[in-house]
What we know:
Mean pLDDT: 94
Low-confidence stretches: none
CATH architecture: Alpha-Beta Complex
Oligomer: single chain
Amino acid sequence: MNSIPAYPRAAMHRIADAIGPEGQHLYLGGDEAARDLALLRAHGITAVVNCAINLDINYVCDPYLPASGDKLAGGHAPIRHYKMGLVDGPGNPHQMALAGFFLLDGAFHQQIPDKPSYPCRERGHVLIHCRAGRSRSVAIAALYLRHRQPDRYPNLQAAIDAIRNRRELQPYEWFETPKPSLIEAITRADQMLARLADAEML
Length: 202
């Protein structure tokens, strides 16, 4: 059982300003933020990136594919939802951290067709989250800040430190915010992204 006391932080925090192509902000939080559609709308969040493999959120409010027999309901959601599915600790191939970087980048840059079958086209701010917003989402967000705002974050530790501060992660939590295995994964992804940048492919 986790004996670390829960810190009474907000459901989400803005951790980066004007990081998207149209000046969008990046928010980071846990499942309480990700499940609160009113909160997301109040902050202009139109895309959510879920890092947690053990958390599924049903955003479909008005399914056009009804549940029937063994088939689940499906349809459009009021926001765009992306999911990578990381384990909170050992078990993730390190390439998944690299995939997380590009998935988050896609949430900011993806161009949505002007068609009725793509009703959620507005480009707004982005929330990255996991269950508590303390480890998996912190790791991927740190990797993203490191490479999308390198003047502000010359290395991963600088990005992690900034996120810890803005997310109100307390020093007694730092040993697991993010978990060591996730720091190792984003360190390897950081090296791969540096090579891509050197080859002018990033």
